[in-house]
Amino acid sequence: MNQNDTIIALATASGAGAIAIIRLSGNDAISIASKLFKSIHQKDLTKQVTHSIHLGHIMDGNRTIDEVLVSLFKNPKSYTGENVVEISCHGSVYIQQEILQLFLRNGCRMADAGEFTLRAFLNGKLDLSQAEAVADLISSDNEASHQIAMQQMRGGFSSEIAKLREELLNFASLIELELDFAEEDVEFADRTQFRDLVERISFVLKRLIDSFAVGNVIKNGIPVAIVGEPNVGKSTLLNALLNEERAIVSEIAGTTRDTIEDEISIGGIGFRFIDTAGIRDTKDVVESIGIKKTFEKIEQAQVVIYLFSSEEFKVQSSKFKVELEKIKNKYPLKPLIVIANKIDKVDDVLLANMQKEIPDIHLLSAKTGLGVEELTNKLLNLINTGALRNNETIITNTRHYDALLKALEEIQKVKYGLDSGISGDLMAIDIREALYQFGLITGNVTNDELLGNIFANFCIGK
Ligand SMILES: Nc1nc2c(ncn2[C@@H]2O[C@H](COP(=O)(O)OP(=O)(O)OP(=O)(O)O)[C@@H](O)[C@H]2O)c(=O)[nH]1
Ligand SMILES: [Mg+2]
């Protein structure tokens, strides 16, 4: 990748639209644009101030391609830190392509995926974790993932890491200085203060590492498995939650044989509901595979909804209670919501009975929608969104998670070294290793492979 090229790409979504934006970045962006743009006021683009907008035409020789608005952002006051030109043209695919081709013939090159943001990073406009947040922001599709990406992009997370890194760096230098005076047996680094810092860093690292559990499910949707015996209304409930006829519903027991999943945002948080094959003893091979999968889905789920039919409860209440106990014993730590479905089919006496026999039972009719909203509220309350509400830093990126784990490991070694009084040179090595892991997150330490991996996941034009 040559950083001196002037790159170009469509910044808006591909396809026809009212307006499309084509973006150029690089040393020659403004001079190339000035050759191909004819201002209606005969302005020379190269002589215009930064952050100005100009009306005119993109010309291929004498041929007018489109009437456009051109925005100028001059180095260093731009997204990439280079000269940037944005051309707002009419959104026909033909016009977009004509303009792109024209600029490619006149000294621009197509941008690679994420290359604008890569340049922003290389020019110090963003640190690495902020650059990664840009991709998260573009892919965020609910309030929670949007909020986390915004916070990371503003630098909340990396500034926390950068601060700790700086303090640690200070101590590393002091301890390394001691090594130069090894014969004199001096201590420049106050061990008590150092121990405090190490404790503080461990604490922050642990908190960030823990937040990944929440962050990851928020980013990917919180998996909720809907389980129960055949025919109790699991698929009907899935459809009610999604507000769409997603799964086949029928009065035949064993209708759903494979798991069916879909996502929906509730209260700003993405939930992934998983409808499963009803659990029962069966000789049917396909159904058995489905039931085995049901248990796998329970393992993976963050929340389990156990459903039974009120109608059947009347005749065989003990059976459901035994089933329920089985699930509770098998997955003691999983949040479980127990639902009596089909309440539209039974009388109030039975409802009262069920509530007495199974406390915490949630009454619902998947068919009429009664109790569905209360269920979604319950789900929201179950998810620990405290950290989210308090605007705490939440980690969603696996790369950061790995680096934080490794940093914590190194910090633990430093702590152990302090406790056991190991020599300064060995401690210095552990501190350097921890510093390296911090640096990987913010991008103080990088290599081409790391950058390649990160930016390859971006879209072209960002
Ligand atoms: N009256 C009433 N009928 C319901 C309700 N929920 C589901 N049903 C009916 O119960 C039958 C079974 O519903 P499904 O949603 O297919 O049940 P399931 O648990 O997915 O069944 P399997 O996929 O076979 O395990 C269908 O005829 C539904 O219309 C309800 O709340 N009230
Ligand atoms: Mg079903």
What does this 3D model show about the protein?
With 462 residues, the chain is an alpha/beta fold. It has 3 domains: 6-125, Gyrase A, domain 2, CATH 3.30.1360; 131-216 and 397-442, Up-down Bundle (Four Helix Bundle (Hemerythrin (Met), subunit A)); 221-386, P-loop containing nucleotide triphosphate hydrolases (Rossmann fold), CATH 3.40.50.300. Helices cover 50% and strands 18% of the residues. It contains 16 helices and 13 strands. Strand 11 (303-309), helix 10 and strand 12 (336-341) form a beta-alpha-beta unit. Helix 14 packs antiparallel against helix 15 (424-442). The protein is flat and about 85 Å long. The two termini are 16 Å apart. 37% of the residues are buried. The model has no long low-confidence stretch (mean pLDDT 89). Bound molecules: guanosine-5'-triphosphate and magnesium ion. Magnesium ion is lined by residues 234-235, 247, 255-256, 275. Residues 221-384 form the TrmE-type G domain. Its cofactor is K(+). It is found in: Cytoplasm.
Brief characterization of the structure:
By secondary structure, the protein is an alpha/beta fold. The protein is 50% helix and 18% strand.
Helix percentage: 40-55%
CATH class of the largest domain: Alpha Beta
What is the CATH topology classification name of the largest domain? Rossmann fold
CATH superfamily of the largest domain: P-loop containing nucleotide triphosphate hydrolases
Task: List the secondary-structure elements in sequence, H or E.
Answer: EEHEEEEHEHHHHHEHEEHEHEHEHHHHH
What is the number of strand segments?
A: 13
Small-molecule components bound: guanosine-5'-triphosphate, magnesium ion
Enumerate how many helices there are, as a single number. Answer: 16
Under the CATH scheme, which architecture of the largest domain would be assigned?
3-Layer(aba) Sandwich
